[in-house]
Every structure is written in structure tokens, then in C-alpha cells.
Amino acid sequence: MEIIRSNFKSNLQKVYQAIEEADFFAIDGEFSGISDGPSVTALTNGFDTPEERYQKLKKHSMDFLLFQFGLCTFKYDYTDSKYVMKSFNFYVFPKPFSRSSPDVKFVCQSSSIDFLASQGFDFNKVFRNGIPYLNQEEERQLREQYDEKRSQANGAGSLAYVSPNASKCPVTIPEDQKKFIDQVVEKIEDLLQSEENKNLDLEPCTGYPKGIHVETLETEKKERYIVISKVDEEERKKREQQKHAKEQEELNDAVGFSRVIHAIANSGKLVIGHNMLLDVMHTVHQFYSPLPAVTLDLFTVCCLLMMKCCASLLPHLQDIINNTSLAELEKRVKETPFSPPKVESAEGFPSYDTASEQLHEAGYDAYITGLCFISMANYLGTFHYLFLSSLYRLFLMRVMDIPYLNLEGPDLQPKRDHVLHVTFPKEWKTSDLYQLFSAFGNIQISWIDDTSAFVSLSQPEQVPIAVNTSKYAESYRIQTYADYVGKKQDEKQNKRKWTEDGWKEVERKRLSTQGLSHPLQSHYYHPNSFSATSRVGKRNLSPGPGEDRVSGEISDSELEQTDSCAESLSEGRKKAKKLKRMKKELSPAGVCGILLKPQGCVLLNCSRNL
Q1: What angle do CA 27, 269, 590 make, to 5 degrees?
Q2: What Å distances lie between residue 204 and 186, 217, 506, CA to CA?
Q3: Which of 146, 257, 330, 589 has the fewest Cβ atoms within 10 Å of its own Cβ atom?
Q4: CA 71, 74, 80: angle at the middle one, nearest 5?
Q5: What is the 3-state secondary structure (H, E, C) of 312-362?
Q6: For the chain, what is the total number of helices (H) and then of strands (E)?
Q7: Cα–Cα distance for residue pair 367/273, rounded to 1 Å
Q8: Tens-place pLDDT, residues 532-543
């Protein structure tokens, strides 16, 4: 089902229902680019650590836009022994809904845009009809702005109207504005004296007398104008309440697609992806909050399972799957020893034809990912519990000895005692490095930048010999990987210490200048020195106080009347944590959450039994 801005609100309840009923989801995203700096090769160095790869992607990929999000929900039908799927293809774009809403800047990469265009991607649906969104901090700030604006207009939050002219000193009118003001005053006076006319349309300005209602509206072409109406006090209050309700509805509409992400997170169910590291990072960054500093905090609400990790690492699968790209994986699971699953589209939802290969449409890719998962789970049979070992592991492309980033525990730390770090002139090419190490047999080269690279030798005992060859060299330097890492850590510590010492010195000079004698520790602002409207909310993945909610199906009234669509993720966290505990306690003989069904079908139910 294609979802754009014009039909998002009318179909949102269907999305909620599909999430509520599903046993598991598959997701996929399409982006405006991958890297805004280094080439993809440099961005994915073969000897990155998981933390380094995460920081690279965070620095060089998050200014791109995730503008198409595919969600495919799967529910097992016991009666007919089949899966029923509902597919959604969302076009997403950060359209500002008002002058005070965020005006997002993003970048595009020509190769990515060209590739999507060659696949028939409709960019008009993104830029003209894309669904807006706000992250939680943006939503909070906008709601505070609206509350403050309403409070100022109505007198400390009261519904009693206060004329803008009340208790104010005369204002000097600029010469170039006097004619306009005189015309406005004349028109308002005519309106008040007229018994026939009830409304007056004016260009935007401020300051009107008591006894009228003022509202600023926009035409379809974004042209602003003012409507002034003669009203009594009762009618004025009624209109103010209607205006407030409309503003709240507009705010909820502005939160937009983020509602879907909140619903997925709150469900605590299994989320399947293919090569989903970027999908997860963009999803958190755009629709929830800025990415955390460390990877372990990245996405702990839902149960994540990456198909590329399973196909590449599980011993029962890696021997029979040679190519883990999505297109090739989908073809492979149609052949023996796999058997295609029985999957049908729900009534009212379009079906996909895998023969047409609509790859790089996010909804279709999510659908194919779900099919691959079911086929692989069916093949594993009684060994399907092995999937639990891949939960919360995100595949790392082109890393030679660390296949995944682990979101729930320590990452792998290989010795890398056969790896050298080499620095050299900018003019050097790969052939120069091969020539330099020609005496050491087979080598692998992983470029870091224009003047450095990692070189791995086939025999670790040759490392000291290679290092010694550069002692008297003028144009290049060779060091062990351990020395390289140690120096980087020392540089970080020295930089941190310099920064801390620098700030201490600045503060010491400031205190000395002011003639203050009390210690630095006492120089903090008093908690009460900030007004309520000046608070800056810290962006955090943890829910704030008072945000707990009861999970379940979302009603129409809740959809329309809720003050905040940034729902608490506490229920999802509880379910995910419980699954983690169960994972540690499980044995091959019994797996709760992945249940074997007749005819080898597998039902994923990572929430209902938890």
C-alpha cells in the first residue's frame, strides 16, 4: 500500500492495526546518498572497529535523507498454515508545516539519485507529497512554542481576551508605515459601524481593538492574510478553542511518520532487515532523536535480526549461501534445500510479484527480506533457535575479521597481529604498496586515506621484519597495528586533557578578573534562575518521567486528541529485555518466541508470549 501525505492520516489506523496484529516485521529504507565525504571504499575500511565504522557513518551519512520507508508485517494464519502479509511503502519528506517548524537541510549524492531514477523511483512523490515528521525534541519545542504563544495572546494561559493595546505606551509609527496603518484603522472603524459586514480580510499586521476576533490564514499558494470578525465574548472564546484544537491537530500531523516508528518501537516485536545498519541509524536519527555517542545505546527497544548476518554467519546456512545480496538471497531460497513459504497479501492490500523484481522500492525489499527469513527459518527446522544468536547484531560490510556490530554486548576484538599501518606520500598508488611488500608474499591492502593504509601479511612472524625495513626510510613509515591503536588512544587522552585544562585555565582567569575567591565548584547557575520557557531538553533515548503508556491498539479518538505522538517506549523496552533474558536461558530443546509449526512452518511471535 502506497502511503503519501494526502492519504497518511486516513490510513494510519490501518498501519497501527497491522503492527498490533503482526508476529514480526520487515523493514527497508531508500536514501538520498551514502557518504558526503570519503568514497564508499574509504568509508568501509577492511580493518575498522565497530565503533570506528559507527562513527564514520554517523559523521558522513546522517546528512542524507531517508525518504522512502518500507514496512511489511507478517502474521501466521493457523487455519490455512500460511503467512498473511501487509505491505506499506511510505514516502517521507520533512515539509515545514509552519514558519516556526524545523526547516531541515539535507544533501544528495548524484550517484544515488541517478541509481534510484534508473530503477523508476518517483521523486515527485517525495518532494511534493512526502509525509512530514518531527523527532521528539522538535515536537517538544514546537508544543512549547505554541503553548507560550497562546499564553501570551490570552493572558497567562487564561481564555480571557486581552487587547494588544491594553496597558501599552504609545508606539512611534515609522513614516513609511503611517499610510498603511491609517488605512487599516479606517477599514476596522467601517467594519465596527457596519451592520451588514461581519468579516474583514487584511494583510498581516498586529494590534487590534477589543470586540473582534483576528485569525491569520494561508492560501494554497502560501500567501498569508488576516480575517477580522466582529464577535461577542462567547463567540470569541468558541473561536479561540477551535483555533487551539486546529493547532493541536496540525502539530499531530507534523509529527507525521514518526508515529509509525513509535508504534513499531512500542510493540517490542521482532524487526527483520537485510543490510540494516544504515536503516537503523537513519530511523533513529530522523524520527526519534540524534544518534547517541556510542553504539550500545543505539536501538535497544525492538528485537533486531539482520538477514545478512544470518546468511553469512550461521553454520547451517553459510555453507549453502554464497551470495548474501538481497536479490541473490531471494533467488537462492527458492531452490533446494529451501522451500518457498506460503505467503498471501491481506484483503485490500496489493500483492508483489517476485518475478518482476521491483528491487529498490522499500516496500518490496522489506517483503523480500521477510520471505527470505521465513524460508531460512523453515530450513533450519529444529535448529531455528540459532536465529537468537544473531539478535541485535548488525552486519559490517567489508570488515575482514569483525563481521557484525553487537548492540547488546562487547564487540569482537581480534588480535590483528598480522596487520601493519603504513603512511606514505600522497602520490603513491596500490601498485607502490604491492612493490614495497613484494618480498612478503600475499598481502591485503585496505586504504584509510590518501596517505595511509592497513596492510595485512599472510604470516604474522614477518611483521617485525617489515617494521624494521622502514627504520631508515624517508618517504614511508611502517608500524604494527597495536602501536597504531596505542598512539591513537594516547592522542585522544592528550586532547581530552588539553581541553579540560584549557577550560580550567579560562575559568581561572575569569574568576581572577572578577576578583572572586570562592572555588570553581561553586560556580553553577541556580536551578531557579531559568524560566520554564527557557529550558533546553536533552535528547535521550530513554523515556522521561510520566511518559509510560498502556500498549495496545490506538483508537480514533486517541489518534485525533492526543497532545503528543511521541509515545513512551517503556513497554517495548520491557518486552525486548525479557526476550534478552529468555535468550540467555534457552536451550536447543525449547525456544519460546520462535515456535515450530506443522509442515515445517515457523511462526515468529516475539511479543505475545512475553
Answers
A1: 120
A2: 16, 9, 48
A3: 589
A4: 155
A5: HHCHHHHCCCCCCCHHHHHHHCCCCCCCCCCEEECCCCCCCCHHHCCCCCH
A6: 19, 18
A7: 10
A8: 333 333 333 233
